[in-house]
Amino acid sequence: MGAIRKKIQDQDLEKIIGQLLRTGVLVSSAVVLAGGIVYLIRHGGQQPQFGTFHGEPDKMKSPGPMCRAIRHGEGRPLIALGLLLLILTPIARIVFSIFGYLLEKDYLYVSITLFVLAVILWNF
Amino acid sequence: MTVLVFSGLIFTGALSAGLLGSLTGLGGGVVLIPLLTLLFKVDIHYAIGASLVSVIATSSGAAAAYVRDGISNIRLGMFLEVATTVGAVAGASLATHLSTAVIAIVFGVVLILSAVLSFFKNQDNLVTGPGSRLTQWLKLAGSYPTPQGRQNYTVKNVVGGFLTMNVAGVLSGMLGIGSGALKVLAMDSIMRSPFKVSTTTSNFMIGVTAAASAGIYLNKGYIDPGLSMPVMLGVLVGAFMGSRILTKAKVSQLKKIFAAVIGLLAIEMIYNGIHHTI
Shortest CB distance from A40 goes to which of B7, B45, B57? Predict the structure, then answer.
C-alpha cells in the first residue's frame, strides 16, 4: 500500500513540475518578447555593439535598478527582467521539489535538494 | 547591419541551433557559440552569456514535456545535480580568469569530443534486477513508458557517473553550454540507464546546472539583454519544435550530420584561438 501511494505521489509531482517549467518559460519569454519589441523600436536602426566586451550596467543586473529603468520605458531592462525570471524557473523547480519530497517524507532527497539549492543561491 | 537585421538573423540561427540541439540531446549551446563568435563576430563573453540563458530555456521548455510523460528519472537527475552544480560554480569562476583565446581553444576541444561521443552512444541499455546497495539507498531505479507498457530498469556505476557529471558541470559553467553530450555519456554509457531516460534526464538537469553559473555570469555582465533576446526566443521556438518530434523520430542519421558540423566549427574555434583572432 505504501509503495503504491509513493508511486502516485511521484507521478503527481512530475505533472506539477512539468507545469511549473512550462509556465516559467512562457511567462519569461513573454516578458523578453515585450522588452524586445520596445528595444527594437527604440534602437532597431542603430549599429549592434557586441564585438568587444564591456560588461553591463546595474540596470541590466539587479532587480531594483531594472524596475526603475523599466518604468522609464526602456526595453533592455525589461528583457533583463524576463531573463531573470527564466533563470529563476529551474530554481523554483528545485524549491518545489523540496516540498514534494517533504510530503513524501523522503528526507534523504530533501537534504540532497536543499544542498543543490544552497549551491545555486550562494552565487546570486 | 542595423540592430533590427542583426536580431532577425540571430533569431533564425538560434532557432536552427535549438531545433538540432533538442533533437540530438546535445543542446543548442554547442553550435550557438561558434555561430555568434565566428559568423557574427560577437565577443565570446557575451556569446557565452547568451548561450547559457538559451540553455536554460531549451532545457526547461523541452523538459516540461518529458517530465509530464514520465520519461525523465527525477531522483537520478536531482542526485546528479549535486555534482553538476558544484562543478558549474567552479567552472564559471574559472572562466572569469581565462583569456578569450584559451576559452575558444577549450571550447573547440570540447566540441570535438562532443561530436565523437555522439557516435558512441546509440546502444539501448536495459539493466534490471535489484541493483547495488548505493543504487537502492538513493532510489535511482525507475521505469519509463514503452509501447508495451512501463519498463522497469536500474542503474550501475553510481560513483563513476557522479564524477563524470562533475566534469560536465565544470565545462557547462566555464563555456556556457549544457554539456548534454557528457551528461548523456555519464548516464547512458557509464550508469547504463536506457537511452531515452538518459537524454531526457540530461535535458532536465541542464537548466539547474546552468542556473548555478548564471548568477556569476549575471554579476560579471556576461548576459547582454539585446543579444540574449533573439538568441533565447529563437532557441526556445526551435526546442519546442524539437520536443514535438523527438518521441517519434529516429535521430541517428541526424546525429551524424550534426556531429560533422560541430566538428568543423570546433576546428575553426581552435584555429582562431591559437591565432588570437577571436
Answer: B7
Asked if A33 and B233 count as a contact pair (C-beta separation under 8 A), the reply is yes
Residues in chain A with CB shorter than 8 Å from the CB of B81 are 116
ipTM: 0.88
Kindly report, residue by residue over B186-212, the tens digit of the pLDDT: 998 899 998 888 888 988 899 999 999
**Residue of chain A with shortest Cα separation from B224:** A56
- Judged by CB atoms closer than 8 Å, whether chains meet at A56 and B223 is answered as yes
pLDDT tens digit sequence for B3-58: 999 999 999 999 998 888 777 766 677 789 999 999 999 999 999 999 999 989 88
Q: Which amino acid is at A113?
A: T
Q: Could you tell me how far CA A114 lies from the centroid of its own chain?
A: 18
Please report whether residue A49 resides in a domain.
no
Flag if A116 and B225 touch (Cβ within 8 Å).
Answer: no
For CA atoms B18, B250, B185, B38, give the dihedral sign.
negative
| B269 vs B104: CA distance, rounded Å | 6
The answer to whether B94 contacts chain A (CB < 8 Å) is no
φ, ψ dihedrals at A49, nearest 5°? -125, 70
Give the structural domain span for A82.
Answer: 2-44+55-121
Contacts of B219 in chain A (CB under 8 A): 61, 123
